[in-house]
């Protein structure tokens, strides 16, 4: 059971991972739209809201952007045949822990604490310290789960494993993390 949770990509079919990923993407887009949460980069959000179309567009853009980076690196460094459909489907499924983490914003104390942080009102931070600490601890677990699944999906779809795969994945994630705010800025409304 632990192995299936640790690396579901060995057990999921391509169709299953794509279907579950699309369902998660749609639900996350609707949730973000309803809660006025806006994806600002690969892993960062703001509370500025937007339209449902904008929410979906941002989710799809970040997924495809990260998938393209992983796919290109797989083509460059893997000795195996790498297909974009495998990389993108596994990347989409691997985002599910991050999507679940966003549900923490339904908790009023966490949401208000993170709004204080997002708006840089550090004078009020002392009043919301419990919410910030709670969010930090719980979100750390989800982010680790997200990174592990992203790496496992990348390694299964490109056959880049162990140290070499970890370094290539880490480099891809760093590139995507630092360039994604610019991508979102130019494609979204």
List descriptors.
two-stranded antiparallel ribbon; mainly alpha; single chain; globular; 8 helices; 189 residues; 2% strand
Question: Percentage of helical residues?
Answer: over 70%
Give the helix tally: 8
State the total count of DSSP E strands.
2
By secondary-structure content and strand pairing, the structural class works out as mainly alpha
Q: What percentage of amino acids are in beta strands?
A: under 5%
Gyration radius, rounded: 17 Å
Low-confidence spans: none
End-to-end span in angstroms? 43 Å
Calculate the mean pLDDT score and round it. Answer: 88
Q: Write the H/E string, N to C.
A: HHEEHHHHHH
| Major sheet: arrangement of strands | 1-2
Number of domains: 1
Task: Profile the largest sheet.
Answer: 2 strands, antiparallel
What form results from the Cα inertia axes? Answer: globular
Q: What does this molecule look like?
A:
The chain has a two-stranded antiparallel sheet. With 189 residues, the chain is mostly helical. The mean pLDDT is 88. The longest helix has 30 residues, at 129-158. A hairpin with a 5-residue loop joins strand 1 (38-39) and strand 2. The protein is built from 8 helices and 2 strands, in the order ααββαααααα. The protein has one domain (9-187).
Present the secondary structure layout.
Blueprint: H1 2-6, H2 14-35, E1 38-39, E2 45-46, H3 52-77, H4 84-94, H5 96-101, H6 108-118, H7 129-158, H8 162-187
Antiparallel strand pairs: 1-2
């Amino acid at each position: 059971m632990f192995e299936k949770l640790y690396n579901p990509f060995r057990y999921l079919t391509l169709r299953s991972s794509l279907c579950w990923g699309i369902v998660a993407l749609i639900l996350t887009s609707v949730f973000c739209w309803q809660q006025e949460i806006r994806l600002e980069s690969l892993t960062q959000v703001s509370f500025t809201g937007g339209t449902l179309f904008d929410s979906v567009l941002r989710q799809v853009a970040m997924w495809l952007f990260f998938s393209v980076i992983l796919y290109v690196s797989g083509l460059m460094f893997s000795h195996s045949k790498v297909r974009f459909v495998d990389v993108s489907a596994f990347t989409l499924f691997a985002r599910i822990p991050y999507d679940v983490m966003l549900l923490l914003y339904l908790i009023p104390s966490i949401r208000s604490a993170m709004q204080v942080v997002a708006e840089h009102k550090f004078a009020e931070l002392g009043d919301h310290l419990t919410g910030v600490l709670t969010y930090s601890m719980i979100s750390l677990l989800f982010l680790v789960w997200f990174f592990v699944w992203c790496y496992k999906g990348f390694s299964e779809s490109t056959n880049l494993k162990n140290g070499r795969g970890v370094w290539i994945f880490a480099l891809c994630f760093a590139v995507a993390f630092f360039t994604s705010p610019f991508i979102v800025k130019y494609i979204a409304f």
